[in-house]
């Protein structure tokens, strides 16, 4: 995260990173507004059955879009950041073109197979799924999958301006389409209509993203005319990307997306609606928290620093700082939900998904664990540990197995417990592989305990003052209760000082105003 950490790799990296961070911050502020507005309008615009079907389709999308292109994400995450500062302009351009063509080709093959088999798949899935819905899903897979992958490449190249422009165009146009068709949540929208909007806007986004990528590639090519071709050996790429790919797919097949599919199959689309909405809210928190999103900005800096000879101890310390930033942002959100979760969920869902409050508490708790996993995964990519990630993921399958085994007795909560076991077992095994590679990873346990104390004390104090009754007294009361929860939690965190003085100084250097006091 430190800008100075990359100076050994390339003297211009610090300037590029800081410019990228500014684009990142501006883009994500807008993305927060668009993402949350779309989520809240969609749950009001689709019927509960259609929303349940959409949640199931989206879970299948997350699995298929990754599985369709073996190794592509691993290569983009690991080798594009390495080539960007290493003077490999020609090699970088060649790798970008090859991996993009490969990604588009495999997505088209997967989408075509789904499109052709749509009637049979619709019959297999059940009455709620039509042939047109499956075919629209196949088209969305091709277009959205392409656009997302190009965004990932831009992030790996520290081109956050292009990444944010592409994502904002795509997601902003979806919101506009939903507003026009649904009358700002006043009219019910059919699932086919919403998927048609997704297909059209994703296609637009894919075209624009590809154009931005070609422009970037031609610019780098002109700058690198005199450079020789430099690219990591194919054997090295395969040695890392193949096991990483299998671990990524296996993780999705035994993670939250698979649990959604299981809940939909076992309990039906009515049950998955509340479960899926709670999951979508937590995913929105995860996706749009600035601290969590910093991982996409930090990854190329870590890899550049590692290539430049930075010590593993420095990287571990920086990883601990990233974890603390994640938890700092999650702590007031958790406090707010503990104080006013039920009225907030009723407001957000328009009263439709109030039975999902228990699931929401669970998913926010899971976010704490997943944020740690994300940082450990970042270190694994930095150290180029591919086989270790695969072994850790195989071991973590025990979690979903235990969840399925306990389902007859404990229902959906057994599957939820399985997710927790899966995340913890993966982290433990991966930490062992990091240690074997020379990186002794350790959690900042004392600081995490301070955050836990701040959450517990804040929630207990506000409950003692009766703030939860204020939250149930209308919109104004709810807003006041949420503001009080956030303010009290942040104030207690500031008093407990979970960050060291060096960390505060480092973070303040990245901010336009030195306001970081935690």
From TrEMBL:
<feature type="transmembrane region" description="Helical">
    <location>
        <begin position="445"/>
        <end position="467"/>
    </location>
</feature>
<feature type="transmembrane region" description="Helical">
    <location>
        <begin position="20"/>
        <end position="43"/>
    </location>
</feature>
<feature type="transmembrane region" description="Helical">
    <location>
        <begin position="55"/>
        <end position="80"/>
    </location>
</feature>
<keyword id="KW-0472">Membrane</keyword>
<keyword id="KW-0812">Transmembrane</keyword>
<feature type="transmembrane region" description="Helical">
    <location>
        <begin position="473"/>
        <end position="496"/>
    </location>
</feature>
<feature type="transmembrane region" description="Helical">
    <location>
        <begin position="266"/>
        <end position="285"/>
    </location>
</feature>
<keyword id="KW-1133">Transmembrane helix</keyword>
<protein>
    <submittedName>
        <fullName>Lipopolysaccharide biosynthesis protein</fullName>
    </submittedName>
</protein>
<feature type="transmembrane region" description="Helical">
    <location>
        <begin position="412"/>
        <end position="433"/>
    </location>
</feature>
<feature type="transmembrane region" description="Helical">
    <location>
        <begin position="315"/>
        <end position="339"/>
    </location>
</feature>
<dbReference type="InterPro" id="IPR050833">
    <property type="entry name" value="Poly_Biosynth_Transport"/>
</dbReference>
<feature type="transmembrane region" description="Helical">
    <location>
        <begin position="359"/>
        <end position="381"/>
    </location>
</feature>
<feature type="transmembrane region" description="Helical">
    <location>
        <begin position="100"/>
        <end position="121"/>
    </location>
</feature>
<feature type="transmembrane region" description="Helical">
    <location>
        <begin position="193"/>
        <end position="216"/>
    </location>
</feature>
<feature type="transmembrane region" description="Helical">
    <location>
        <begin position="388"/>
        <end position="406"/>
    </location>
</feature>
<keyword id="KW-1003">Cell membrane</keyword>
